[in-house]
C-alpha cells in the first residue's frame, strides 16, 4: 500500500474515534448561497423586497454585520468549499471562473462524506469536473461555464442529475427547479439515520433579469411609485432604526454617473428592471421556505445549522440608459446560437423591450446595484465594502440561544470549512487521497454561535478584479490594482468608507501594506 493510503486509513480511524466519543447526534448543515445579492436586499438587512422566510432565520437566529466574500463568484465558492484563499487553489481572484487546483486542498463535502455525512448539492457548479467527483453524493445543476438562462438550456451549461445528462422540462424555471431538487434531496436524506450536508448554490439574482410574470407583478407598483433615491433612503433609515448599522455612519455618496430619480427620463423601464430583480430574490426566499417547512415536518430543525449568505455584492452590469445591444447580443445579429433550441434573443432593453421574458437578456444597472448595497460603497468586483461584505444569517436552535441577535465580529467565507468541521467533529487532514492539503486559513465561527468572542483573524486580505485590500482590526487599507496609493478607513466609525485617513495615519498604512505584501507573496500563484 502506498503512503497516502495509510494516511487515509489513519484519518478514517481518527474520525471514527472522535465520532464514537460524541454523545449527541451530529448536526445537519444546510448552506444556502445567493449570487450577486446586495447587502440590503433582504428584509432583515433593511430591504423592502418581501423575504419572510429569510427574515425568519434572523428572527430565530443570528445576523452578521461584518462578514466577507471575495467580490466575485468563482473565487468566493472556491474559498467557501476549501477554507483557503482562492489564490491558493488556482484562482487569480480577478476572474470569474478558472479551474481550481485540487492537489492542494480538500472540500467540505469530501471530508464530511468520509466521516459519515450524506452530502448533496444543487445549483451553480463552476468546476470542469462534476460535483459528484468532489465529495457530493448527489448533485443537480448546470455546469456553469458561460452566461445562463433561467428558462432554457444554453451553450456550455449542460445540466446534470448526479452523473446523468438531463433534459429540462417545458415549464422550467431555474430557481424553482433548484428549490425543488433541494427539497427532494432533503426529504431523501431525512429518511436516513445519518447527518447531512446540503449546499444550495443559487444563481439568482445574477443577471439576466428573468422571472415569471405573476411574481414580477407583485413588485411593479412598488418601484413605479418609488425610485432609487427614495428606496435607498428608506433602506438606510430602516438599518439605523434596527441598529444594524451605527448611528454615526453616513450613507455612502451616490456615484456621480447616477442621475437623480426625478430627472430620470425612463422611470417606467427603470422600475421594471428592479421589479424583475426583486422577483428573482423572492424566488430564492420561496425555496428557503420550502426547506424550512420540510425540516419542521420531520422534526429536524432543532439540530440543523442553516446558513444563508451571498457570494459578492450587487452587480453594476446593465447600463444606466436603454440600449439596443448588450452582453454580446446585437441588433444586427441573428442571436440564435446561444440557446440550445435556437430561439433568438431580443438584444438590449428599453421600454419597448422590457426585461423578464425568456427571450430577453438584461441586467438592472449601477443605480439599482447602488441601492442593493445600501449603505455601503462600491459593487461586485470591488474591494470596497459593497463588493466584499455579504449578509450572513445563521439559525441553529440547539446552539444559538439568542433569538434575533446581531454580531459585529468579522468573519470570512474561508471560515465556513473550519466551522463545519468543528461542529461535525471532523479533523482536518494533513494527507488526503494522494493530496497534501494546505493548512486551513479559516477559523471556526462556533464560538460566535455560542455567544462568545472568538479569536479574530490578524488580517484579512483581498486581491479582487479592481482592488487590493487588507483589514486589520477595525482598520482597512485599499488601493486600485494599478498599485496607486493606499486609502485608509476606520470601519468601526466609518463602515461606508467616506473619509480617507491615510494622510493622518502614514505609519499604519506602512504596516498594513507590508502585511499585505507578505500575504500576497504567500498565497499568489507562481
Describe it for me?
The chain is α/β, with parallel strands linked by helices and 526 residues long. The chain has 13 helices and 15 strands. The chain has helices at residues 3-21, 52-60, 73-82, 108-114, 174-190, 213-225, 228-241, 267-297, 365-372, 385-388, 415-423, 446-449, 506-523, and strands spanning 28-34, 62-68, 118-123, 138-142, 159-161, 164-165, 196-201, 304-310, 389-395, 405-407, 411-412, 460-463, 467-472, 475-480, 487-490. Strands 1, 2, 3, 4, 5, 6, 7, 8, 9, 10 and 11 form an 11-stranded mixed beta sheet that branches. Strands 12-13-14-15 form a 4-stranded antiparallel beta sheet, with helices on one face. A hairpin with a 3-residue loop joins strand 12 (460-463) and strand 13 (467-472). Helix 5 (174-190) runs parallel beside helix 8 and helix 6 packs across helix 8. The longest helix is centred in the middle third of the chain and has 31 residues, at 267-297. It starts with a helix and ends with a helix. The mean pLDDT is 94.
